[in-house]
Amino acid sequence: MNPDVRPRADLYPGARPRSDLGIVVLTGAGISAESGLATFRDANGLWASLRPQDLATPEAFARDPDTVLAWYDARRSQLAEVEPNEAHHALARLDREWPGEFLLVTQNVDDLHARAGGRRMVQMHGALARARCTACEAVHAWTGGMPRGTPCPGCSQPALRPDIVWFGEMPMAMPRILAAVGQADLFVAIGTSGTVHPAAGLVGRLPPGARSLELNLEASGGRFTDSRQGPATRLVPAFVDEMLCG
Ligand code: APR
Fold it and tell me: Is residue 128 within a helix (H) or strand (E), and if so which, with residue range?
């Protein structure tokens, strides 16, 4: 690590030692698109042909558990067919090498950030690779199918559900996320349409003087200091090089 490296002045009002600079990164489905996972709101996204109210709400699960469980089984089985891309790996490098505070907040339920080596990260919408027991609240790593009636490995009750945050449910790790955003010097939103709260509102909770950057195929219209358009696999490695190499 080059000790005399300074971040680009146009991202900071005045360059300070990097160990003093905190970064929060928010990712959405767009960062996994080039790995082959569908986004939600693009023209060929999941919500173009499916209705979230039929698949991603507690009411849908109560009404038709077999359909909901089968949809998450299909998405979970897809994880074995995809790999982290250069954008995931670049963020894992930033996580490893950035000496200041760093938190990756992902809305994604895929495991690609973790498989790329992300450590200082939270999945605010849960994870496909986990099951949660509605009887004993235990959470288990899960890679296979989860048909209705699958017994909980802990309490044996047939009460498992995907450990996913559905619409209307409280996202995970919010106190940690809000504390990190409230102290951040730089907030970077990557591959998210900025349509789902509370994730979409995080950029508005930065402290005075903090900077914000959007990396997306197209500008989402959010309130960012800086916005760059292009594919994540091109923009994110370049951004990380810029932050680590000055
Ligand atoms: N590189 C960069 N950005 C991309 C790429 C790419 N290769 N491909 C698509 N994008 C951008 C799109 O332009 C869009 O702005 O990624 C964004 C994807 O937006 P959404 O499909 O709305 O996904 P996301 O923002 O993650 O959705 C948020 O909505 O349905 C819920 O829980 C679900 O976590 C999800 C939340």
Answer: strand 126-133
Residues of the chain with pLDDT under 70: 1-17, 246
Distance CA 133, CA 156 (A): 9
Query: E strand or H helix at 164, and its extent?
Result: strand 160-164
CA 218–ligand 1 middle distance (angstroms): 11
- All residues at 6 or more sequence positions from 113 whose CB lies less than 8 Å from its CB, including other chains: 27, 84, 88, 91, 92, 104, 106, 121
Pocket test for ligand 1, best of 25, 26, 27, 40 (most atoms within 8 A of CB): 40
Tens-place pLDDT, residues 158-176: 999 999 999 999 999 999 9
What lies within 8 Å, CB to CB, of 93 at 6+ separation is 240, 244
Residue 1 alpha carbon to ligand 1 centre in Å: 32
pTM (whole model) above 0.85: yes
Q: Could you confirm whether 89 is annotated as catalytic? A: no
Nearest CA to ligand 1 atom 23: 29
**Helix (H/G/I), strand (E/B), else coil: 25:** strand
The H or E element that residue 212 is part of is strand 211-216
Give residues (CB < 6 A) around ligand 1.
28-30, 33-34, 39-42, 45, 52, 107, 125, 191-193, 195-196, 216-218, 220, 231-232
